[in-house]
Write a structure and sequence with these properties.
The chain has 149 residues and is mainly α. It has four helices and no strands.
């Protein structure tokens, strides 16, 4: 779990940094401006979507364990789902902290701090998209399992 979280962080931060380089090259900072005003709302909305989706998946897992009388088989899956929710809550807290760093006058003297902080902010969004993708994959796995019988 920790390895996957670290891997997701590196991918997200790399993507966030690349988005900063691309925006600087294009001379357009729409993505940064959009995230500054909407990131926390987006993360809360994605959390709500994922919780609802996980609820549907858990319901189906419960049906499967009851049908095949195999309690405890999906315990690690349930733990991963709970970890996913914790990650999303952490992203919300982390993004609020990162958004508060950017206008800080104490950080103005640090070279390229805006690129670093904007990369972190973008990374929060990218990480949330990766979690959403994983959640969506779980729905398709359940559907394939059901249709495969």
């Amino acid at each position: 779990m920790i390895k996957q979280t670290f891997q997701y962080f590196l991918i997200s931060f790399g993507g966030g940094f690349l988005s900063q380089l691309l925006q600087d090259w294009l001379g357009n900072h729409y993505f940064n401006d959009f995230l500054k005003t909407n990131l926390v709302n987006l993360l809360v909305a994605l959390l709500a979507i994922n919780i609802t989706t996980l609820g549907i998946v858990l319901t189906r897992l419960r049906e499967l364990t009851d049908k095949y009388e195999c309690s405890g088989v999906f315990d690690s899956t349930k733990q991963q789902m709970l970890a996913s929710i914790r990650e999303q809550l952490g992203l919300i807290v982390f993004s609020i902290a990162a958004l508060n760093l950017l206008p800080s006058p104490k950080l103005i003297d640090i070279p390229s701090i805006d690129i670093f902080v904007n990369s972190l902010i973008s990374a929060c969004f990218i990480y949330a998209m990766m979690i959403l993708y994983d959640t969506a994959k779980s729905v398709f796995i359940i559907i394939d399992f059901t249709d495969g019988k």
